[in-house]
What we know:
By secondary structure, this protein is of the alpha/beta class. It is built from nine helices and ten strands. It is 30% helix and 21% strand. Helix 3 (75-86) packs across helix 8 (252-269).
Amino acid sequence: MPRLAMALLAVFLLYGCSPPPDEESLSSDVDTLTSTNEALSAALSNTAPRPRTIVIAADPWCPHNCKAGSDREGYMVDIAREVLGEAGYTVEYVNVSWARALKLTREGQLDAVVGAFTTDAPDFVFPDTPQGRSAIALFTHPDNRWVYDGLASLHSQKLLVINRYSYTDELDRYIEEHQDNPERIWVIAGPSPLDRAIYLLDQHRTDIFAEDIYVMAWWEMNNNDAVPAPRQAGLVDEIDAFVAFSPAREDAKELAKLLAEGTRQLMDSGRVQQILEQYGLSLWTEMP
């Protein structure tokens, strides 16, 4: 495995897991987490102004952002909480499907999303400095020997993607062009999309799916061999990831500037490295 010398907030090696989904949930777009996530319910039902509270949301995408309320909620959540906390803000983190996180944040019902690319929501307000880094690759069943060699190589494959996810400019354009062709593109949704994607791949119901290689490394490290690990079939591109603020917040630009400056300060002080070490990570490591 090649060594990757990672500049600060360049490529992180990260590991994680999630339980297998049940068959009944596979066709559902219902955000089941919203009925049980007390933090989300409280955030949406609280109509009183809370100017010093920032509610950020996403579906679990560990280790960038993990399960809300867990011992380790993700290094990007940790960075945001520390920077904004030092400025006097209380950060609440909740899990919902990515599509709903974008919708509620765009409407101003939530304050920010975590793990966003600029292509996910160009109308959101992004810090100048990213809080994370993603590397998007294509994965197949371990028995499938197909290799990604540019967009033309996708034409004979059914690609599974997650609703409202952005995957890099190149892949996004391909998905948009073929999204109405079920033989080319299959879009899934829900609060645990990674589990569903791996299940569908294992059942040979799709040929390939797109995901971050560090999220897959996290999953593989913890899946206990319940499902064979998908095979990485080629890297598409690397892209910065952010905590991005709602355009409905009047102070969104101020918050983005605050987070950018604070992130840089944590980098300079070595605090980012300390946060990564809590996840067993290092800025210099082997690629998965």
